[in-house]
Input
Amino acid sequence: MPEEIPNIESVRREIDRVDNALLELIAERLDLSAQVRKAKGGMRVWRPSREDSHVRQLAAEAQGTSASLVSTIWAELMSASLAAQGPMRLHVALEGDALSNWSLVRDRFGAALDVLTYPTTSAALASCHSEDEGVAVLPAPAPPPGGLINWWTALGPGGAMEGLHIVAGLPRTGLQDWPSAVAVADVVLTPSGADQTLMCVTDNKPLPDGAVLRAEAGNFRLFSLDGFHEIEPSPTRRIIGCLPRPIG
Output
């Protein structure tokens, strides 16, 4: 028996019904988001590890929907939610391919947040450091040999910005082993469930098993460790970030 061809008007009515239901749910979610700030009692608005963990779970449960689409939808929802909760602002360095960097920012953070752009990573990082809810989006530390991106040393042992951490990679989805850009903020590091910990080292002592060299600058070396790790800071070693692995 030939397959019955659906009536186009009936299908369109069903699409309209779903769209209206989605809008009602979005409005409900935004209303709940407006209450979150009160419940947090002074905690930071953005919790990147929780957000990535949540998107990872949603992408795993979504049947027939790509992880990229799930991430993009939630980026816009979270952007609107975070904008409603408080004064979070993005400080974006446009060094290198500015258009590509901007696309990564929109894909990860949506369009609702306040954004300032800077010609250099140092300017973006300094502005982020001066704000309680600031987030810097910077080129990822370059892999050896020859990487000239060394802003991350300011987060390392003895650096001027030890309170900041690398907390997210851009893009959030894909199969890449190392991100194109990273987000930096004054956030307490917590696990997302699928992480690599970033350790900055200025000594030549033995390294943990599985440490992967990601960048070098003078006597500073940046290593990634599989999983979530905590070490006591020392004059020569410091955990400067935790990157949730890409969702793919």
Residues 48-244 form one domain. Residues 54 and 192 are 9 Å apart (CA to CA). The radius of gyration is 20 Å.
